[in-house]
Amino acid sequence: MHKIKKLWKKLKNKDENVKLLKWMLDIVKPYIKFIVYIFLISIVSMGISYVSTIIGKYVVDDATTGDVNFRDMSFMCITTIVSIIISVFSNILSSYINENFSFSIRKRLYNDIQRSVWIKVSKFHSGDLVTRLTSDIGGLADGLISILPSTILIIAQLLISFLILLYYDWQIAVFALVLGPIGAACMLFFRKKYKKYQMQFRESESEYRTFMQESLSDLTVVKTFRQEDANEATMEHMKQKRLNLVLHNSRLSSIMSAVMRLVYSAGYVVAFCWGSYRISTGDITYGTLTVFISLVSQVQGSVSGLAGLIPQIYSMLISAKRISEVTEIEKETYAGKEDIPGKVGLEVENVYFAYEDEFIVKDLNFSVKPGEKIGIVGPSGTGKTTMIRMLLALTKPQNGSINYILDGKKESASPDSRRFISYVPQGNTLKTGTIADNLRVGKSDATEDMMDKALKMASAKKFIEKLPKGLDTVLYEKSGGLSEGQAQRISIARALIGEKPMLILDEATSALDETTESVVLKNITEQFDSITCFIITHRRSMLQYCDKVIELDDDGRMKMKNLKEHFNK
Ligand SMILES: Nc1ncnc2c1ncn2[C@@H]1O[C@H](COP(=O)(O)OP(=O)(O)OP(=O)(O)O)[C@@H](O)[C@H]1O
Ligand SMILES: [Mg+2]
Question: Minimum-distance ligand to the CA of 553?
């Protein structure tokens, strides 16, 4: 039974490998033309070096008969210069292709991440995703663009060297052939170890990037909790871990190339001795001996090149696997609806939702008429934000239905529903850039008048007017340069500017003083009479601006109450 399981696992892995190879082939397809160009250039350059080697034979042979062959000598010079020019050209071409290719996959992966189902992609840390988008894509591009042609080229080089040797002396060619399987066996022996090492290496990269990104993104936490020493110790620990990995790898590759070199050095000595013996018997010329020696050292160079490629190949495969893991995340499907309804109602029936095994929200049942303002209250962690995520179709309920009533027509909640919803998420969500840039996230073609109107409603106009650069004030990371409450008001303006028929405020005014909060909510509820609003708040006094209240209890169940009922409880 155990054996069957093992075999099944192996087979499954094979399937996975085939899938990975197909995936790589698919992404490299548009670039195959360029890779072939690089390959052909390398072939030409290789051919020139062989021609140069053979011309060398005639130069030496002429020299042994007392002739100085200037024609062949100058030919050797020309071939050397040509091969240098070709290599410059090939380097420029390959760096162009590498950048073009890696950025295209980066763009594709970035798009895939954006369009993945939120709940699934949110399980990856952003630091890990950035590592996959940068280092892994770099490794994959290097691999596909250079390793693949190099491997083929080296194998071709070995084959041509063998054929030339065969032409001049079959015994030495057969001897060189015996060395091939020895080299291959050596590589197979180290294969598994490399794979494991490469995986650990990439994981460690994700780990330290995640750590650095997180700690540097909020230095006030580092400073006020006096984490400097602890963080330094973590960095030291990571350094040691990586050093161990690098040492381990370097030991592996050194042993491998030493073994391979030993095998091929033996080959070199044998070629040298055999050649000398054949000169003594008069079977070959001095020139042929130089061809032997030059070819055997070329073979040696190819073999150590091949040995050096092994870790790179594994690095490429691991990167490919890590990238494909992200591309395989389920994508959201849009039906492409663009029509914005005038009025939005909502019907929620028997909704249950669990992130893992336990239901967070249970038995949600309520309906909302167009233009109604609904307050949502409940202790922290009871599922208020979770409920909003379902309305925005960021998560799907495991049971029940969520239907919007758009100008009287029913439409179930889906990613397309976001076209008519404005949302102010909990927490700081402004991006780096000017205030105007942030407002344009809400409406890409927003005019200054529209910005003015939205900012006035969000009670942000006055403080922005006081800023020397007004709307062009640049916000740094995490709204650096603004107070928390100011940033919240810009987030509200960003949502209002789109004038969508439904608005969700998830503790959007939590950092404001009570008076400003009242002004903002009053503005919104009075001026946006026909807009359906959900207002999540921990301040019960703010419910005066609502028509109804949904109360979530600790058990994740809800009660819909009208205001009187709520305040008289
Ligand atoms: N992405 C997630 N994966 C797993 N569990 C989650 C996730 N997000 C929230 N939860 C869990 O779901 C529960 C409800 O969280 P939610 O954010 O909806 O609460 P909330 O009512 O909005 O709280 P608060 O008032 O503090 O914002 C919590 O117990 C939380 O641990
Ligand atoms: Mg919340």
Answer: 1
Map tokens 């410059």 to a residue. Answer: 88
DSSP secondary structure of 211-226 = HHHHHHHTHHHHHHTT
Decide whether any atom of ligand 1 lies within 6 Å of the 382 Cβ: yes
Residue closest by Cα to atom 10 of ligand 1 = 355
Record the pTM.
Answer: 0.81
* Residues near 415 by beta carbon (within 8 Å), at least 6 away in sequence: 332, 333, 334, 393
384 lines ligand 1 (CB under 6 A): yes
Question: Does 380 sit in the ligand 1 pocket, CB within 6 Å?
Answer: yes
Share of the chain above pLDDT 90, in %: 42
Strand order in the sheet with 399-406: 359-368, 344-354, 399-406, 409-412
Residue with the two structure tokens 């040509």:
82
**Is the pLDDT confidence value at 53 over 90?**
no
Using the predicted structure, report yes or no on whether residue 137 has a pLDDT greater than 90.
Answer: yes
Per-domain residue ranges of the chain: 11-327, 344-567
The yes or no reply on domain 344-567 and CATH 3.40.50.300 is yes
Closest ligand 1 atom number to CA of residue 507: 27
Tabulate helix, strand, coil % of the chain (nearest 5).
Answer: 70, 10, 20
Mutate to test the pocket of ligand 1, among 386, 424, 505 (most ligand atoms within 8 A of CB): 386
| pLDDT at residue 110, rounded to an integer | 95
Q: Does 253 sit in the ligand 1 pocket, CB within 6 Å? A: no
| Contact status, residue 501 vs residue 342, Cβ threshold 8 Å | yes
> What own/partner pairs with CB < 8 Å and gap ≥ 24 does 296-300 have?
296/176, 296/264, 296/267, 296/268, 296/271, 297/268, 298/49, 298/53, 298/157, 298/161, 299/157, 299/158, 299/161, 299/176, 299/179, 299/264, 299/267, 300/261, 300/264, 300/265, 300/267, 300/268
pLDDT, one tens digit per residue, over 316-348 is 888 999 999 999 999 999 998 889 999 999 999
Ligand 1 centroid vs 421 CA: distance in angstroms?
21
Nearest-angstrom CA–CA distance, 172 and 271: 7
Query: CATH top-level class for 11-327?
Result: mainly alpha
What spacing in Å lies between the alpha carbon of 395 and ligand 2's midpoint?
15
As a whole number of angstroms, the distance between CA 504 and CA 532 comes to: 9
The pair of three-digit structure tokens given for residue 220, joined into one six-digit string: 């006030």
Q: Which atom of ligand 1 is nearest to the CA of 379?
A: 25
Angle (nearest 5°) at CA 475 between 469 and 481: 85
Instruction: Please tell me whether residue 553 adopts helix, strand or coil conformation.
Output: coil
Quick check: helix, strand or coil at residue 31?
helix
pLDDT digits (tens, 9 = 90+) for 488-514: 999 999 999 999 999 999 999 888 998
Question: What is the percent of the chain where pLDDT is above 70?
Answer: 93
CB of 383 sitting under 6 A from ligand 1: yes
Ligand nearest to the CA of 554: 1
